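user: can you give me the structure for this one chain? tokens are fine.
assistant: on it. calling the predictor now.
[tool input]
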Amino acid sequence: MFKPSQPMMARLRLTTKQVNGGYYKGTRTGSMGYFAKNGSYVIDWKKVRTYVVPEDLDAFKLTPFVTKRMAPTQSKYTKEIEKDGLPVTLERALEGKDYLALWASDNGQEVFEKERIEEEGRQ
């Protein structure tokens, strides 16, 4: 039977199906407490993460990744509806047809080749 070498075993991931009961893999986030005998979870406040905010935040030199002063981004996809007899333009989400049109504009040569092959198949 095939058996992986020792260096390969270090790379293979251990799953809960490969070990006996009582093994919990976890999510590498660390524990915040422990389970008591009655099954409840007790939080150990020494383990709880705390984030320190600088005291003089206005004069702090580091800036956030996203500014709060940015205006909301407008969607370039719209739809026309009629409300009370007047045409109204509303924003809409990206649809499948929009994605295909965008893909075709980026990969035009493939589209032309596919159309050529389909044309030859019809003849």
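assistant: here you go. The helical segments are 6-11, 96-106, 108-122. The beta strands are 33-35, 41-43, 78-83, 86-91.
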